[in-house]
Design brief:
32% of the residues lie in helices and 23% in strands. By secondary structure, it is α/β, with parallel strands linked by helices. The protein has two domains: 174 residues, 2-Layer Sandwich (THUMP fold), CATH 3.30.2300; 167 residues, Rossmann fold, CATH 3.40.50. The chain has a seven-stranded mixed beta sheet. It has a seven-stranded mixed beta sheet with strand order 10-9-8-11-12-14-13, with helices on both faces. Helix 7 crosses helix 9. The longest helix is centred in the last third of the chain and has 19 residues. It is elongated and about 65 Å long. The N and C termini lie far apart (44 Å).
């Protein structure tokens, strides 16, 4: 058995499968996908050397619907097995040459209600499994950041998949999920989407420079202030554009100017806005065009926005939206740019997109 395992949100397996099929074809690899509704992962079957090539060359950050990705090594049946650690070891030993010495271990589950009930077991099981793998010299005695990461994913209590991912092409979060607590004073749960987006799209070592106190920001379609809240807590000065009411607590900070205007018509009087954010419920092509025009006309330096997804053919639609934005920036822009898109954990029927002009090297 060989291939790639991609974890995604339950219900989006078809979109994740369409995306990996498309990306693998671009790499000259021709495999096939296997998945079931609501299992929250996709198996892309291909030759072992092709799976390793995908794990090396296909950047996880470039995949919209996949939260996590690893090379599949083996499937293990654990029904009636008392020593599960030994069973995992026996399954991994024939594949040791694939990853040599692993630098760390991740025991996880897909993001389904059934599998999530095993989360506590996974945390406990990782302790004896680490010991077993270290004795067999499959796992380093101490975590090594530059070595491959071993994955053991329990689909259910009787079925697990093993694999590995490379240190430079993996998520730091188990299952690719960044879990955040809803702030007590947050105006709406949508606030978590922008909080996650900042952490996913802006590398930690760049945050002090790109997310600074005193920066100017604009939130289009701001009411009641879920996304404005994240800008305020990062000490930015915000123009919140919406005809609807804003949360009183945000207005009392003195950092928010509420502008009662149509988000599609508003433009700042001065070109000193760094961050533009937008979570308006509108046609995605129209939102994408608006965000692109802000960048092209110099009205912002970076933008984070959501694009609502259709009910069907979501990957095809996303590919079209991103292609339109890219074409506009390439045709009319004069600077290099970066575009990222992700179906974040706190997203639902939408994806979050990040655009920015790249600084001169």
């Amino acid at each position: 058995m060989s291939g790639i395992i991609l974890l995604c949100r339950a219900g989006f397996e078809g979109d994740c499968a369409a995306e990996i099929q498309d990306k693998a074809t671009e790499l000259g690899i021709y495999g096939y996908c296997q998945t079931q509704p609501d299992q929250a992962y996709v198996t892309y079957h291909c030759q072992a050397e092709e799976a390793d090539h995908i794990a090396r060359k296909l950047a996880l950050k470039e995949l919209v619907f996949a939260r996590e990705m690893f090379v599949l090594l083996s499937a293990i049946k654990l029904a009636g097995v008392e020593d599960r650690a030994s069973a995992v070891l026996e399954a991994l030993l024939p594949h040791q040459e694939s990853f040599a010495l692993a630098g760390d271990l991740r025991v996880e589950t897909p993001d389904t209600n059934e599998a999530n009930q095993l989360s506590k077991f996974c945390r406990k099981f990782s302790v004896p499994l680490r010991q077993t793998l270290r004795k067999a010299e499959l796992l380093s005695n101490k975590p090594l950041a530059k070595r491959p990461l071993l994955h053991v994913m329990f689909v259910n209590s009787a079925h697990a998949l093993t694999g590995y991912s490379y240190s430079y092409n993996q998520t730091p979060h188990v299952g690719g999920i960044l879990r955040l607590k809803m702030p007590k004073d947050g105006p709406s749960r949508s606030t978590l989407k922008l909080d996650e987006a900042f952490q996913v799209f802006v590398p930690e070592h760049e945050r002090d420079k790109r997310i600074q106190a005193g920066m100017k920001a604009v939130d289009l379609g701001a009411a009641p202030g879920g996304w404005t809240y994240q800008l305020v807590r990062r000490d930015m000065m915000v123009q919140a554009v919406d005809n609807g009411p804003m949360a009183d607590a945000l207005m009392e900070t003195g950092q928010v100017q509420h502008i009662r205007e149509d988000g599609f018509k508003f433009r700042p009087k001065r070109k000193n806005v760094h961050w533009l954010v937008c979570d308006m419920v509108e046609k995605p092509a129209r939102v994408g065009e608006l965000m692109t025009s802000w960048l092209l006309e110099g009205d912002c330096q970076e933008a984070i926005f959501n694009l609502k997804l259709p009910m069907r053919q979501r990957y095809a639609a996303v590919k079209e939206y991103l292609a339109q934005i890219t074409e506009q920036l390439q045709t009319h822009g004069t600077k290099p740019f970066e575009i990222q898109a992700k179906h974040l954990y706190h997203d639902r029927e939408e994806i979050t997109v990040h655009l920015r002009w790249l600084p001169k090297s």
